[in-house]
Every structure is written in structure tokens, then in C-alpha cells.
Amino acid sequence: MSIEKTENYIFQRVRERVLREMNHPYLARFQPNPKLDMFHMHISLILLQAAELPSEDVELLMTVVLLIHHGLRVHDDILLASAQPDERYRQLNVLAGDYFSSKYFHLLAQDGHVYAIGRFARAISRINEAKAEREKYMRDFSCTEERYMRISERIHGELLHTLREIYLPNDSLWEDIVSFAVRAYVLKEEYMGLKQGNWVLNLANIYMYDQASTEERRYMKSVPLGQMLDNRLLSYHVKYRTSSYLFRLMNSCVLTVERLSTVLTTETMRSHLQSVCQFISQAMQNKWKFVEQG
Question: What domain of life (predicted)?
């Protein structure tokens, strides 16, 4: 079986298992099946295969990572659910998030990976701490670009770093690969968020605010959070070329991951990392239409 077919076979098995674990007759009436995060699937598979774990452990631990990841993402949707006139939607989001992420306790204990339970519990705590810190900065632009990226990389990468620390401890090459891959993924998410056109605290807006004049900053602070970008804000993005800025940062990280991958000893590992780089880069192929006109 080819590398690509083997990879797709594992992904399909893990996807089916995750959805089976998430299935609950009552919650299913209100919570649609999630679209599983392919970045976390790819990196988890690469790390676990590099650690030379048996296939059954690979599938189990990928399932655990995805259950926790999506459980935490459901919690992020609580604010959206609160806009619903029925309080039931908010309550169900809380319940669903707890239900999905708590499944990892049972799976790890059942298969003898008890030592990993505490490590993942600490990872969840660190992710929630990072989300709380990000929320603290939502009302102003006092957060620096560097600080914002550290917070975002913890939110998106803590589970993967925990997996690496457990099964590939003291391996500086894999630490660098995960770090740069997570940073590239965060920048991809930032770019996609920029294209959605809402005024929120994100890297592009922090960068733009840092470059802006006093008058431009005053206007930025007056715009309500969540509002769609108006023509004035769009003109600022054109002026400061925020899309190109994100692209350069992301491309630099992808190239670093590609260079690091050449050190790996197996074609399978190199191929998997190439897939990750392609997955991230695809989102950046079409430049933001109004940004490149300036």
C-alpha cells in the first residue's frame, strides 16, 4: 500500500472512531458532526509513527488528541450559542465540550496509558489559561505581536507538544518541527480570519495598529468588536499590506519545516511533512483581493 493510501486509511479509521466516541443520542439532535482538524491529525500521526508506536496505539492517541481538541473548540463556540434565544443551546455547548474532551480519560485508562492522563490534563489547563489571557487583551491593542503569537501557539499547539514530550522526549529536531509547523498553522488561521472581514483582536490588526498614525489608532479603538470591516479599515489594510505580511511569515515557517524534514531518515516521514506544508500553503494561494491593490 502506498504512503498516501496508508495515511488516508489511518485517517479514515481515526475519523470513524472519533465520531463514534462523540456520538450521543441527545446531543446529536443539536450538535452536528464536527469537521475534524486535519492539521492535528497529520502532526499526531507523524509524531506517533516517528516514535514507532504500534498501529493500535497510534489510532488511540490520535483519537484522544482530536477528542480533546474538538471538545475545547466547542467551548469556544459558547459565546455564539449565547446569542440564541433559547438558553438550552448555550448549556448544550458546555455539556458537549465537556463530554467530548473528558472521553480521553476513559480511553487512556482503558488501554493502559494511565501515565499520559495527567500530562494531557496539564495541557488542557495551559490551553485554557492561554485563552483567558487572550480574552484579557480583546478590548484593546496592548498585546504585542510576539505575545499574541505565543498565546496562539499555545492554544493550537499545546496538545501536540504534549504528545511529543511524552513519546519523543528530549528530541530537539521534532521539537523544532512541531514548533514551526504550529506557527505556520496559526498564521494560516490568522490569514483565514482576516479574509472573513471582522474587526477583532488578531495578528493582522495588531500589526496594522503598530504601524498606524495617532488618528488611525483613535479610529481603530472606536470600532466595536465583531463589526464587519468598513471601507476605512479596509483602506488601512491596503496601506499596510497586512495580507502580504502574514504570507511572508507563514511562508518562512513552511520553508523551515521543509528544510527540517530533509534531515529525517525515512521517506514516509518526509512525505507526511510535505503533506502538512501543502495543507497549510493551500489556504494562502489566493491573495486577499483588496490588499494587493495598494
Answer: Bacteria
CA nearest neighbour of 160 among 181, 134, 131, 129: 181
Same domain? For 145 and 40 the reply is: yes
Same-domain pairing of 225 and 81:
no
- Domain span holding position 286: 172-294
The pLDDT tens digits of the residues spanning 36-81 come to: 888 999 999 999 999 999 999 999 999 999 999 988 877 565 544 4
pLDDT for 41 equals 92
Which residues are within 8 A (CB) of 195 and not within 5 positions of it... i.e. 6 or more apart? 288
CATH number at residue 63: 1.10.600.10
- Are residues 154 and 234 located together in one domain of the fold? no
Q: Is the dihedral of CA 246, 157, 182, 195 positive or negative?
A: negative
Q: How far apart are CA 124 and CA 197, in angstroms?
A: 30
**What distance lies between CA 228 and its chain's CA centroid?**
23
Per-residue burial over 116-147, b if 16 or more Cβ lie within 10 Å, else e, is: bbeebeebbebbeebbebbeebeeebebeeee
Q: What is the pLDDT of residues 247-264, one digit of tens each?
A: 999 999 999 999 999 988
